[in-house]
C-alpha cells in the first residue's frame, strides 16, 4: 500500500454478498476489514474500538444508513472518522442527504475493486494534515484556528467543528483575499464526484457561518454566482 499504513475498515452491509465483496476487495489492498450487518451493530463496534474508515450502506434494514451517519457525525468520539457510503439503487435524495451529513465520498454498486481502493486512498490523502509550524495560527477578526491542535476559537470561546467545517474555514483563511469558486471548494473538500453538487458547499458555508455567529457573517463573504471569500480588509 505504499505510504499508507494498514487501515481498519468497518463495513456496514446487511447483504452478506455485499459484505463479502467489500471484504474481498479490501483484502487485495491490505486493508484490515470486518463486516457488520446492522446500524446498531456498527455503532457498538465504533464505540468499542473506533475504526480508521467506514463503508456504510444507505439501504440498511432497521436503523437506516442516514440515521447511523447522523449519530456518528454528531458524536465527538466518531465525528472525524472518514466515511464512504454505497447503495445498489442510487437515490439522489439519499445521496445528497448523506453528503450534507459530511460523508467523504459515495460509490455505486457494482464497483471495481481498484476503484474502491483508489477512492479510500484519495479520502485518506485529503485527510492528511497540512504541514504547519508549531506556532502557526490562522486568524481573522475574532476568529482563530490553531492547526497544531485542530482547535477553533471565536471571541475566545472554543467552537465545536465537524471535519468539513474545519477544513472549509482553514481553506478560506489560508486563501484570504482570494475568491474561491464553489467548484474549487467542492474539489478541495470532497474530490471529484458526480453525486455531489455545489449546493452542498452552500449548505456547509451556511452551517459554518451559523457556528461563528456575528464573526462568520462579517468575514465569510458570498460572491454572487461564483463562490466565497474572506477578504483582506
- Rg, Cα atoms, Å: 18 Å
Helix/strand class: alpha/beta
Number of individual domains: 2
Uncertain parts: none
Which CATH top level class of the largest domain fits? Alpha Beta
Q: With helices defined by DSSP (H or I, 4 residues minimum), what is the helix count?
A: 8
Estimated helix fraction: 40-55%
- Give the end-to-end Cα distance, rounded to a whole number of Å: 45 Å
Helix-strand pattern, N to C?
A: EHEHEHEHEHEEEEHEHHEE
The portion of residues forming beta strands comes to 15-25%
Largest sheet, if any? 5 strands, parallel
Q: Which fold name fills CATH's third level, the topology of the largest domain? A: Rossmann fold
Mean pLDDT: 88
**Spatial strand sequence of the major β-sheet:** 2-1-3-4-5
Write down the overall geometry. elongated
| Number of DSSP E strands | 12
The CATH homologous superfamily of the largest domain: Response regulator
CATH-level-2 architecture of the largest domain? 3-Layer(aba) Sandwich
Describe the protein.
The protein is of the alpha/beta class and 233 residues long. It has two domains: 8-127, 3-Layer(aba) Sandwich (Rossmann fold), CATH 3.40.50.2300; 138-229, Winged helix-like DNA-binding domain superfamily/Winged helix DNA-binding domain (Arc Repressor Mutant, subunit A). It is 42% helix and 19% strand. It has helices at 16-27, 39-48, 65-74, 92-100, 113-127, 163-174, 182-190, 198-219, and strands at 8-12, 32-36, 53-57, 83-87, 105-108, 138-140, 143-146, 151-154, 157-158, 180-181, 221-223, 227-229. The protein has a five-stranded parallel beta sheet with strand order 2-1-3-4-5, sandwiched between helices. The protein has a four-stranded antiparallel beta sheet with strand order 6-7-8-9. It has a three-stranded antiparallel beta sheet with strand order 10-12-11. Strand 4, helix 4 (92-100) and strand 5 form a beta-alpha-beta unit. It is elongated, with a radius of gyration of 18 Å. The mean pLDDT is 88.
Amino acid at each position: 500500500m505504499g505510504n499508507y499504513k494498514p487501515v481498519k475498515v468497518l463495513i456496514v452491509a446487511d447483504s452478506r454478498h455485499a459484505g463479502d465483496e467489500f471484504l474481498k476487495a479490501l483484502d487485495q489492498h491490505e486493508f484490515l476489514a470486518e463486516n457488520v450487518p446492522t446500524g446498531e451493530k456498527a455503532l457498538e463496534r465504533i464505540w468499542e474500538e473506533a475504526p480508521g474508515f467506514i463503508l456504510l450502506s444507505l439501504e440498511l434494514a432497521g436503523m437506516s444508513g442516514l440515521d447511523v451517519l447522523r449519530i456518528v457525525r454528531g458524536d465527538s468520539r466518531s465525528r472525524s472518522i472518514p466515511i464512504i457510503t454505497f447503495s445498489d439503487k442510487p437515490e439522489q435524495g439519499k445521496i445528497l442527504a448523506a453528503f450534507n451529513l459530511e460523508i467523504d465520498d459515495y460509490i455505486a454498486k457494482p464497483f471495481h475493486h481498484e476503484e474502491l481502493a483508489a477512492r479510500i486512498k484519495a479520502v485518506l490523502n485529503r485527510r492528511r494534515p497540512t504541514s504547519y509550524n508549531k506556532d502557526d495560527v490562522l486568524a481573522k477578526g475574532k476568529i482563530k484556528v490553531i492547526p497544531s491542535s485542530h482547535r477553533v476559537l471565536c471571541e475566545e470561546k472554543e467552537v465545536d467543528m465537524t471535519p468539513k467545517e474545519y477544513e472549509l474555514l482553514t481553506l478560506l483563511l489560508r486563501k484570504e483575499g482570494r475568491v474561491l469558486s464553489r467548484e474549487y471548494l467542492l474539489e478541495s473538500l470532497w474530490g471529484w464526484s458526480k453525486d455531489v453538487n455545489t449546493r452542498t458547499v452552500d449548505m456547509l458555508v451556511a452551517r459554518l457561518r451559523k457556528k461563528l455567529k456575528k464573526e462568520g457573517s462579517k468575514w465569510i463573504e458570498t460572491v454572487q454566482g461564483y463562490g466565497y471569500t474572506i477578504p483582506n480588509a
